[in-house]
Write a structure and sequence with these properties.
Layout: H1 16-29, H2 36-60, H3 65-97, H4 102-105, H5 110-142, H6 144-150, H7 153-171, E1 181-184, E2 189-192, H8 199-236, H9 242-255
Antiparallel strand pairs: 1-2
Helix pairs in contact: 2-3, 3-5, 3-7, 5-6, 5-7, 5-8, 5-9
C-alpha cells in the first residue's frame, strides 16, 4: 500500500514473510498507543452493555406486551454490542501486547478473516436493530390500530433473529470468495479489502456501504417523523390516550 496509508495483507498472494514485514512496518509507523486504551474500551463496553441488559431484562417482566417488544429490541442491541466487544477486544489487546505485530498472533491469517466477519456483523447488526426500533415507534404513532394488531412479541423475536442470521450470512461472503478481509493499517485489525480493483471486493464493499447508508437514512427519517408527531400533539394538547402517548414519548427518548 502507499506509504503512511492503508496496510493490507492478501492471505492468498502474500508470503508469510511479507506478512510479517508489513505488520512490523505498520507498527513502526503508528503512533505509540498504550494497551490500556483497548482494555479501557472493552471494560467500558462490557459494563455498559451488561447494565443495559439487566435493566431491559428487569423491565421486560414488568411491562405489557407492546412495551415488551420495544424492550426486546433494546436487549438485542445491548447483547449484540456486548458479544462484539467480547469477541473483538481480546484479539486487539493480544496484538497490542505483541507490539502490534499481527503475525505473532495470527501467522495463518485465519484470525484476520474471523476478525473481519465480526467487524462486519457487529457493524451492521446495531444499525438494523436501530432501524427496527425506529420503524416500531413510527408505526405506533402513525398507524396505532395496525401496530396493535401487527406488532407482537413473536414477530419482534422473528425480526431480531432474521437480522442476526442475515447479517452473519452476508459477513461470511468473503470467506467463500465474494470479497476479502485483509489486515488494515496500522496492523491491529482486519476489515473489508477496498484496495484492489477486483469485482468481488468491489461488490462486497459497495454493498456494505449501501446497506449502512440506507440503514442510517431509514432510522433518521423515522425518528424525524416520530419527533414531529410528538411535537405536533404536544402543541395541540390532545387529552386522549395520555398513557399511550407518554409511553411512546419515553420509548422514543430512550431510542434516541
Amino acid at each position: 500500500g502507499p506509504a503512511g496509508g492503508l496496510r493490507m495483507w492478501d492471505g492468498t498472494n502474500a508470503s508469510s514473510e511479507e506478512f510479517r514485514t508489513n505488520t512490523s512496518v505498520g507498527a513502526a509507523q503508528c503512533f505509540s498507543v498504550s494497551v490500556a486504551f483497548p482494555v479501557t474500551m472493552m471494560i467500558a463496553g462490557i459494563v455498559g452493555n451488561t447494565l443495559a441488559l439487566l435493566l431491559a431484562y428487569s423491565s421486560y417482566h414488568k411491562e405489557n406486551n407492546k412495551k415488551k417488544s420495544f424492550l426486546l429490541i433494546i436487549g438485542a442491541l445491548a447483547l449484540t454490542d456486548l458479544t462484539g466487544k467480547l469477541l473483538i477486544s481480546p484479539v486487539v489487546i493480544s496484538v497490542y501486547l505483541t507490539n502490534r505485530q499481527w503475525s505473532r498472533v495470527d501467522s495463518s491469517g485465519n484470525l484476520c478473516a474471523f476478525f473481519g466477519v465480526c467487524m462486519t456483523t457487529f457493524g451492521l447488526c446495531p444499525l438494523f436493530l436501530a432501524n427496527a426500533m425506529a420503524v416500531e415507534r413510527t408505526l405506533a404513532i402513525y398507524a396505532p390500530h395496525y401496530y396493535s394488531n401487527l406488532v407482537t412479541i413473536r414477530l419482534t423475536k422473528l425480526v431480531v433473529l432474521s437480522i442476526w442470521v442475515t447479517v452473519v450470512i452476508f459477513a461470511l461472503l468473503p470467506v467463500v470468495g465474494v470479497g476479502k478481509y485483509t489486515l488494515q493499517w496500522p496492523g491491529t485489525w482486519c476489515f473489508i479489502n477496498t484496495g484492489k480493483n477486483i469485482m468481488g471486493n468491489t461488490i462486497f464493499a459497495s454493498t456494505f456501504t449501501v446497506l449502512g447508508i440506507v440503514s442510517l437514512l431509514v432510522t433518521f427519517t423515522c425518528n424525524v417523523a416520530t419527533i414531529r408527531a410528538l411535537v405536533i400533539r404536544c402543541k395541540k394538547k390532545v387529552p386522549s390516550s395520555n398513557k399511550q402517548w407518554e409511553r411512546i414519548t419515553v420509548d422514543t427518548l430512550i431510542q434516541l
